[in-house]
Amino acid sequence: MTRSRHMRMRWQRGSGGFTLIEMMIVVVIMGILIAVATPMYQENMRKSQRREAQRELLELAARQERFYARYSEYSVNITGESGLHYPRTRTQNELYDLEIDPCVDARGNTIGFDRCYILLATPVANSSQAGDACGALSINARGDHAPGDADDLECW
């Protein structure tokens, strides 16, 4: 009888916690999950931020078309009275610089803003988008868009 009471007390004392091995297994599993999830999360954030730049490029393209309908030429300025009245030259998330460039023909000659423009969103140096495989994004007066460095389907 003494022996069974001793075994019962011993079992009750040891049943309230985890062993060191069990805790280490949990830590290893969590480390693996974090190692897999972090790059996927970062890539999804890059895509989301790229979509913001695309949205702003499309907004600027619409403003360019309204400007053209009014003045029969495209604007050379994003901001200001003589420009597109856009409030900034950087995307709202501060990760891309926005600019308007003239088009260039096959021989390298500049085409005037009366016929063409290129809107460009370039990743800001040292930002989270600086390492994005798509690089700079652009759209022109015909609606043709291009990534900077990667496959068009992936970037647009």
**Residue fraction in strands:** 5-15%
* Spatial separation of the terminal alpha carbons: 78 Å
Low-confidence stretches: none
Most strands sheet: 4 strands, antiparallel
Rg (C-alpha, Å): 29 Å
Shape: elongated
CATH top level assignment = Alpha Beta
Secondary structural class = alpha+beta
Q: Order of strands in the sheet with the most strands?
A: 1-4-5-6
Task: Work out the count of structural domains.
Answer: 1
Overall average pLDDT: 86
User: In DSSP terms, counting alpha (H) and pi (I) runs of 4 or more, how many helices?
Assistant: 3
Number of strands: 6
What portion of residues is helical? 40-55%
The helix-strand sequence is HHEEEEEEH
Tell me what the structure shows.
This protein is an alpha+beta fold and 156 residues long. 44% of the residues lie in helices and 14% in strands. Strands 1-4-5-6 form a four-stranded antiparallel β-sheet, covered by helices on one side. It has a two-stranded antiparallel ribbon with strand order 2-3. The longest helix has 52 residues, at 20-71.
Keyword list:
156 residues; alpha+beta; Glycoprotein, Type 4 Pilin; four-stranded antiparallel β-sheet; two-stranded antiparallel sheet; 6 strands; elongated
Strand and helix map with partners:
Elements lengths: L1 H13 L5 H52 L24 E6 L1 E2 L5 E2 L6 E6 L13 E4 L4 E2 L5 H4 L1
Antiparallel strand pairs: 1-4, 2-3, 4-5, 5-6
Summarize the structure.
With 156 residues, the protein is an alpha+beta fold. The protein is 44% helix and 14% strand. It contains three helices and six strands.
